Amino acid sequence: MADIIAETDRLILRTIEESDAAEQMRVLNTPTVMARLGGPKELHEIEAKHAKSMALYAREGFSFLFLIEKETGEMVGHAGIKRVDNPLASNEGDHEIGWLIREDRWRRGYAEEAVRAVIDWAFIRVDAPHVVALTSEANVPSWKLMEKLGMVRRKDLDFEDPSYPPEDSMTIQYSLTKEQWESQK
């Protein structure tokens, strides 16, 4: 049974279950949604990410979560916390937040609504000293949301990731401390 971690006005943020992979494959794994994340994944890749996320939640009490739309009960995205695990990053192990919204729910404010709940979770219950978010320089909507959330660009943490296409290989990072987050409230 999934744990409900947070609720917002329109969303339930709940833990991942093994049975979620097929639904994620169907509604989130589209060429458009995955365009800046290396393209659509195979089912076994999604299952492996789920296993990793569930293990992280069991071990550390945080992970990525599914976003369930209260009005329809449908999966509309995922968002959450993991550890920076790219070996090319100089800040491996930091608390990394991230999000993904299905295409037919874009421009409704779901990402911001979900990520605000995730940041509260990170600082209040997980007790993270700071969080970072990674994206490609070309993913303008992603880093615009980071800025809207009060995150600060950290050029000192940028790195090149050749596993992505050239237009997405420059990984940029933003960060936010607990103090910065609290001063916005």
- Can you say what the CATH homologous superfamily is? Gcn5-related N-acetyltransferase (GNAT)
Point out poorly predicted stretches: none
Query: Which H/E pattern describes the elements?
Result: EEHHEEEHEHEEEH
The CATH topology comes to Aminopeptidase
Give the total of beta strands.
9
Query: How would a textbook summarize the main sheet?
Result: 5 strands, antiparallel
Distance between the termini: 33 Å
Report the portion of residues in β strands.
Answer: 25-35%
Mean pLDDT: 95
Radius of gyration: 15 Å
Helix content percent band: 25-40%
Count of helix runs: 5
Going across the biggest sheet, name each strand in turn: 1-2-3-4-5
Task: Give the overall shape, derived from the CA principal axes.
Answer: globular
Given the helix and strand composition, which structural class is it?
alpha+beta
Which CATH top level class fits? Alpha Beta
Give structural attributes:
185 residues; alpha+beta; Aminopeptidase; 5-stranded antiparallel sheet
Task: Please describe what this structure looks like.
The chain is of the alpha+beta class and 185 residues long. The chain is built from five helices and nine strands, in the order ββααβββαβαβββα. It is 31% helix and 27% strand. A five-stranded antiparallel beta sheet has the order 1-2-3-4-5, with helices on both faces. Strands 6, 7, 8 and 9 form a four-stranded antiparallel beta sheet that branches. The N and C termini lie far apart (33 Å).
Summary of the model, kept short:
Helix content is about 30%, strand content about 25%. With about 180 residues, the chain is α+β, with helices and mostly antiparallel strands.
